[in-house]
Amino acid sequence: MSLYSISKTHSVYGGAGGQGTRISSALRPLNGSRRGFSLADVSADEKATMQDLNNRLASYLTNVRSLEESNIELEIKIKEWNESHTVVKQDHSGYQCIIQDLVDKINLISKNNGRTLLEIDNAKLAADDFKTKYENELAMRKNVEADTSGLKKLLDDLSLNRSDLEINYEGRKEELILMKKSHVEEMALDRSESGGQVNVCVDAAPSMDLNLEMTEIREHYEAATEKNREELESWYQSKITTVNKEVITHNEELQVNRTLLKDLTVKFQRLQIELQSLDSMKAADEGTLEEIQVHNGAELASLQATVTTLEEQLSLFHANIANTKQEYETLLDIKTRLVHEIEEYRRLLNGEER
């Protein structure tokens, strides 16, 4: 052929839906053969060959248009896929609110625990204070009981002294009786010896003085004993009264302190139970928060993996689109050159017929 030379057999092939369309080769014009061209040089065989070539180029043009339609359909499918697979960012603000609420609850429980611990410490200090007061009152009561025991011992000693004085008094009284009896016997003996004469002046006066002295001694000891007894009883009664008042006062204070100690013990136990309950609530809230964090972390990891997968798919689609665009541009360039060649063939054919 003098105008164009075909280096290889041209063929068009493509995949499903027009994807991966390729053209194995293109027509290459022989520029040298176009020099000095005239209609007289075109033979009948060449004319038939050009007509066949024109038909083949028309078929190629039809295939190119089919590929363009396939590319348009592919672009529409890609656009629809992108619209249907748009990554929707989930709103985790609800979880954030729940987490913040749990954190606020934990902080509130921590503050309540601190307040409860402070109340427990105050209750312990108050209980220790009342315990100290109770021990002091108990020691004071023991001292009063010891004083009372000492007073009772002193009273017993005074009672023994009184008994000794009474025994001494009875002994002196018996001695006086014996002395009187002895005196009467001596008087009778003197009377018998002196022939019935009695010297009253000599014998009577000592008897009267002895009785008076014994009476004075007895009265003196009785008065001293009575005075000591009265003083001792008065002192003992005053001491007993004072001690009883102190014991009553201490017993009342001790009863009040026992009541307060009992109330503080009950309050302390109640606060301990409340603290244990708050600790349990805190542990449960912390466990719930940890579960939510783990769940959110797993869900976030899953979403991140999904996003990564979608990004990879999107990158592949972008690469496919770029390849398709490049192929489309290649086909468009081939189409343009084929259109020009077809026009050239038609012009030549029409010129020859004219």
Automatic annotation (TrEMBL):
Residues 46-354 form the IF rod domain. One of its GO terms (cellular component) is intermediate filament. Keywords: Coiled coil, Intermediate filament. PROSITE patterns: IF_ROD_2. It comes from the Eukaryota. Residues 50-84 form a coiled coil. One of its GO terms (molecular function) is structural molecule activity. The keyword Coiled coil applies. This is Keratin, type I cytoskeletal 19. It comes from Triplophysa tibetana. The lineage of its organism: Eukaryota, Metazoa, Chordata, Craniata, Vertebrata.
